[in-house]
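notes to self, project folder thing:

trying the whole complex as one job this time. last attempt i did each chain seperately and stitching them together was a nightmare. three parts in total, labels are on each line so i dont mix them up again. if this works i'll redo the older ones the same way
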Amino acid sequence: MSESDSFFEKVYVVARKIPYGRITSYGAIAEYLGAKKSARMVGWAMNASHRKEDIPAHRVVNRKGLLTGKHHFEGTNLMQQLLENEGVQIKENQIINFEELFWNPNLELKPLY
DNA sequence: TACGTGACAAGAG
DNA sequence: TCTCTTGCCACGT
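result (full assembly):
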């Protein structure tokens, strides 16, 4: 299968595998893809992917658990509401139990190669 | 064709 | 402990 030819596509694949009620970080995805230093690209990928309905971009936050990408969603609290709807507690744009809900693709997913 | 931008992360000072 | 700088790479203008 060649669903993940480009770095972008790989980001999409990983993002789609984020379990319900769980969250991960840009860096974690980047690291899983073997490009830990390219976390910015993950954010850029999200920017392009959030247009796709099958990409749960709201489950991806920065390493501090901050909803830095909320402004890219419609309205001001759509991203927060989506997460709260999944049982994620948020306060001031930050996920409270971030460490508990953190989903690490490096551990949960099998190696890409 | 070339340069600037971007939802980040980590190291160094 | 906090702030600044650098690295990375694809897309848009």
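what i see at first glance: Residues 56 and 89 of chain A are 17 Å apart (CA to CA).
need to look closer tmrw
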